[in-house]
């Protein structure tokens, strides 16, 4: 194929270089100096202080390919993976920026030029949204580009739907933000879904490919908007979504890079249907997990490490569903290195660490995954109202290392839910019991790490630890 993902990355950077942009490297997934943010969820994160005027760079135009993770915090797409054609936990965002330099006119003109002239997308397949009060962007699309009014949709603020259109972009609850204009691609009538702003916009027919944000404010903790020192442009385009269009496929999982991972996962699991949902989830999760480890995160029971553990365990459970009872997940790493090592040299450099960390987690979870699944199956057979009781979800969490979102995900596949309030109550009860018992100087729980690090002879089993009033977190 002409438009490999590598080619698209290169084309993008070349285009913006020709428009006077400095090419900068991707920042890590763990933001360097931003405690308000769990992960780098978009290209602008590494430029946050530049927008705020607190940091100066030697350039006023920049472009890059940023690795992103949306699996926690304000942007969380974990529960969409495997359910939509277009959402990943880990993805690559192509971005261009103006720091007080060009504004709406140039940003809009260049995005159109790149999509329709350089990459040759059919203009009639594209439609755009603008912030409902942003007449300037509306006019630029209508008069300068020549888009007819029926393909320019005015959109306001998202009132809560998980991926409903929202034309006021925010990195987090505080920080740089502003109105945006987004470009959508129509994959065709044969796919279910309506245009942005319509009741069935969550479908996969009209897929959002590029967001152009006009950064103008710094959102304060009390919600007020303080104008930035200078208006800026911040754009983000999903590499995988664009590759799907240019490679004439519909879902991101059909692009070259994902197909390589899926074929390997198919080989490792014996699942021959390459459109199988579990293969897709596994292919998604190996990217997220590997890059998290590359960027210094290791599986643990709190914060970023717990997000990583949750994603790994979800992937392992999908392998289990396909009948795999041997370690398989870390065996995908060489394929990932083949696919992405050139674009991200830090990946091959740390591949051994990634493999070892994944293997260790896989061995650890193997001790309880099988019995946990049996417990779940028994429960599911008993439950009559479709709701897994909180105490049981807690037992799966506490004794079998099933993060509650994993249990909820298994339940969802069977048309069931988990009583989350009940789960929280059990959790709270256990904290109190542990505090009262004070065995380890007041409420210190025994971590799964510690348990796993005990010599096999000293390992009493999770049940026994429980009986002793000790708890295993995760
Ligand atoms: P969506 O509405 O489809 O969830 P978004 O509005 O949340 O996307 P933005 O925050 O505007 O996305 O990010 C800019 C671009 O990054 C999007 O236009 C899309 O191409 C890409 N993108 C966003 N989220 C994901 C994801 N989870 N997986 C892959 N690409 C994504
Ligand atoms: Mg989204
Ligand atoms: Mg959107
Ligand atoms: Mg968007």
TrEMBL record:
The alphabetized UniProt keywords are:
Aminoacyl-tRNA synthetase, ATP-binding, Coiled coil, Cytoplasm, Ligase, Metal-binding, Nucleotide-binding, Protein biosynthesis, RNA-binding, tRNA-binding, Zinc
Q: Principal localization?
A: cytoplasm
Q: Could you tell me what the cofactor note in this record states?
A: Binds 1 zinc ion per subunit.
The enzyme class is ligase
Q: Which reaction does it catalyse?
A: tRNA(Ala) + L-alanine + ATP = L-alanyl-tRNA(Ala) + AMP + diphosphate
Function recorded in the entry:
Catalyzes the attachment of alanine to tRNA(Ala) in a two-step reaction: alanine is first activated by ATP to form Ala-AMP and then transferred to the acceptor end of tRNA(Ala). Also edits incorrectly charged Ser-tRNA(Ala) and Gly-tRNA(Ala) via its editing domain.
The name on file for this protein is: Alanine--tRNA ligase
Could you tell me which species this protein originates from?
Stenotrophomonas pictorum JCM 9942
**Parent protein range shown?**
5 to 478 of 883
